[in-house]
Amino acid sequence: PKLSQVVYHNKLGNQAERLNRLMSISGAIAKALGADAAVAERATRLSKADLVTEMVGEFPELQGTMGKYYAQHDGETAVVAQALEQHYQPRFAGDALPETTVATSVALADKLEAIVGIWGIGLIPTGDKDPYALRRAALGMVRMLMQYPVSLPALVQDAFDSFPAGKLAANTVAEVTDFMYARLAVL
Q1: Which of 25, 37, 71, 139 has most Cβ atoms within 10 angstroms of its Cβ?
Q2: What would the mean pLDDT of 86-99 be, rounded to a whole number?
Q3: Facing residues of 13 across strands?
Q4: pTM given for the model
């Protein structure tokens, strides 16, 4: 419940609203990857809980790591705990990719929701500015998606559909899909 008090973006709502979108997206991605959608949705539901802890508040670099430890302490499955730790991956060029399809589903959902949402409200990266690190997120997604035979346009559409109608620009799906394909060319 504390996530409803944490603003994600003033035009996109709070972290609790974002979490609902992420659960929808991760479930669809899990199905496309052949993973257990219910487990992916459970991991997604817990993926941002550590953000409201004092440990992550004091040491933000422990996001995900603390989520894993809290999940293990609370008796969550190893797959869920691993997904909590790995859903931020890859964080930078050359970083490890998530190891399971569940962790990959959560990681893809997290990055895809951010790209579609931020792009859809008009905060498109320019040649010299990318304050929301959309290029890095897109490159990470492309690296992950290269391992699975899934439709990128369908995933982008699922992410777009998770937002309330009219919240994002109508051309978001086409532009984000083109942006992602451009990242593939860069990679």
Answers
A1: 25
A2: 93
A3: 9
A4: 0.94
